[in-house]
């Protein structure tokens, strides 16, 4: 039987801009696999505006840290060869790599051009607040360091539909470019009237040449890196029809197993459903609504009703399309979508994504290893490792919920015969010390279960009727189960188990 899959977002905003990150990934690959991580979402791999750019200020999509452009050969994270080596090392250890794609905009143009625009109201991009006039915009991309290697395509203002800076007058604004068939893409999020424009020079996906170029680039990148999937950035700002076309083309190129998840930062479930309908459910979405529930729970404490934690979330309505997460690089403190989940609730939130039946959970690098920058935050690796171990060894089988108290909830995973000793009982408290009486099965009668989080030193003996009372500390989480034979953190022992699983999966696929 295949084990549970778990993703790690392998970066946070303040990862050191020392060009060592791809080497770091290669070095940590065996350690991640041993912890139960079998896929990693890595940051944008393409050349940004500088050696410090996180990759979201995308400059040259064909430069993976190979050409001397923008004052650097390497990207913030390393060179192209180091990236290829890290990807190969991950694959060698059974870890799939998902690459972050920034396809909404381009930044750091090589030259300015003069073209006609109208200015629009930032609060309603459908409202024009000026007559036509000329600006000097940064929209010409010649890529002098790369030349025509890999692609001869050069970008100019005709390939964009908006920009935010007039170099002629040194003025910022949202300027919609005027031209034949030139307008905001309509099939985007409707916030601010039309949310096609986000930042920098906005790519026009109504332009057929642009669509063709971006499809070719997507296929080139996957061939170059041999990655197993993509994470698409800022897709609520990109023509949904193009996203559908892009996903279909990548699947045709790489097969049905090629995985795509999109950042559709909108907690409204109807908007998510409409988007998934439009793209024919070819991609998954991050469960933004659940993230905000976690934040609300961490802020509300005993005043938050834990029985509602999954109400109006993507994992509740579209469980097979939901990628669940606690925090990420945008929600971390001081960033654009800051909505940090309080530290006291972090272990409970991770239990709620790692130990349940539905959703594809993501562990955030910043939660695991810590966050740098001006306001450092320590990582919670030890606590998360215990939950990862429980996910890998215990969280299988039928799920029964006991969501019957606003401050104390629990659930049981009944386990499966194929994984001896699997099954667990989880209890979460948002208030005082609590307990849950839950049924784990008559075949468990007489077993002695311990708290795998090590939050409690007592044990629970399962009754003859298969029921037991499982306690939890106030504001905490406990995961009750038979002790794990190989303790979390025993890298060599866990690696042996994982290698055996990999051999089994390989034999199965060959047959």
Automatic annotation (TrEMBL):
Residues the entry annotates as binding Ca(2+) 2: 204
Family stated for the protein in its record: Belongs to the glycosyl hydrolase 13 family.
GO BP, sorted A to Z: carbohydrate metabolic process
Protein name as it appears in the record: Alpha-amylase
Domain Glycosyl hydrolase family 13 catalytic: 5-391
PANTHER family the UniProt entry points to: ALPHA-AMYLASE (PTHR43447)
Protein source organism: Paenibacillus durus (Paenibacillus azotofixans)
Residues binding Ca(2+) 1: 104, 196, 237
Superkingdom of the source species: Bacteria
GO MF: alpha-amylase activity; calcium ion binding
Active-site residues, Swiss-Prot/TrEMBL: 233 (nucleophile), 263 (proton donor)
Keywords per UniProt: Calcium, Carbohydrate metabolism, Glycosidase, Hydrolase, Metal-binding
Cofactor entry: Ca(2+)
């Amino acid at each position: 039987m295949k084990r549970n899959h778990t993703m790690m977002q392998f970066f946070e905003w303040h990862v050191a801009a020392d060009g060592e990150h791809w080497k770091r990934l290669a070095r940590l690959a065996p350690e991640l696999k041993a912890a139960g991580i079998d896929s990693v979402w890595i940051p944008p791999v393409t050349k940004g505006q500088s050696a410090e750019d996180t990759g979201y200020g995308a400059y040259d999509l064909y430069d993976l840290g190979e050409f001397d452009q923008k004052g650097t050969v390497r990207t913030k994270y390393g060179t192209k060869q180091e990236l290829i080596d890290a990807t190969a090392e991950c694959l060698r250890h059974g870890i799939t790599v998902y690459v972050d794609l920034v396809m909404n905009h381009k930044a750091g143009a090589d030259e300015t051009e003069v073209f006609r625009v109208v200015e629009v109201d930032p609060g309603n991009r459908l409202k024009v607040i000026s007559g036509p006039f000329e600006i000097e915009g940064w929209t010409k991309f010649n890529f002098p360091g790369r030349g025509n290697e890999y692609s001869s395509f050069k970008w100019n203002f005709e390939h964009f539909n908006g920009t935010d800076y007039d170099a002629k007058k040194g003025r910022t604004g949202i300027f919609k470019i005027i031209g034949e068939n030139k307008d905001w893409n309509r099939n985007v999020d409707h916030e601010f009237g039309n949310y096609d424009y986000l930042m920098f020079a906005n790519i026009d996906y109504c332009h057929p040449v642009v669509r063709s170029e971006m499809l070719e680039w997507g296929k080139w990148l996957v061939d170059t890196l041999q990655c197993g999937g993509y994470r698409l950035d800022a897709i609520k700002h990109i023509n949904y029809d193009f996203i559908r076309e892009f996903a279909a083309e990548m699947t045709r190129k790489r097969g049905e197993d090629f995985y795509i998840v999109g950042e559709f930062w909108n907690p409204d479930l109807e908007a998510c459903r409409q988007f998934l309908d439009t793209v024919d459910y070819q991609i998954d979405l991050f469960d933004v609504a659940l993230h905000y529930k976690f934040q609300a729970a961490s802020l509300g404490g005993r005043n938050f009703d834990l029985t509602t934690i999954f109400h109006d979330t993507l994992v509740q309505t579209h469980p097979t399309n939901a990628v669940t997460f606690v925090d990420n690089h945008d929600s971390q403190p001081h960033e654009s979508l800051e909505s940090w989940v309080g530290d006291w609730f972090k272990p409970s939130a991770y239990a709620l994504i790692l130990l349940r039946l539905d959703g594809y959970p993501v562990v955030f690098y910043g939660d695991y290893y810590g966050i740098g920058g001006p306001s450092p935050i320590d990582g919670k690796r030890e606590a998360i490792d215990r939950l990862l171990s429980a996910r890998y060894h215990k969280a299988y089988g039928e799920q029964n919920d006991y969501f019957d108290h606003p401050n104390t909830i629990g659930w049981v995973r009944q386990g499966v015969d194929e994984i001896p000793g699997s099954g667990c009982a989880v209890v979460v408290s948002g208030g005082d010390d609590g307990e849950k009486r839950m049924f784990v099965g008559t075949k468990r009668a007489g077993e002695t279960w311990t708290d795998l989080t090590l939050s409690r030193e007592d044990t629970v003996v399962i009754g003859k009727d298969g029921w037991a009372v499982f306690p939890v500390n106030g504001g905490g989480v406990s995961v009750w189960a038979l002790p794990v034979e190989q303790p979390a953190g025993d890298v060599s022992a866990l690696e042996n188990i994982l290698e055996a699983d990999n051999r089994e999966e390989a034999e199965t696929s060959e047959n």
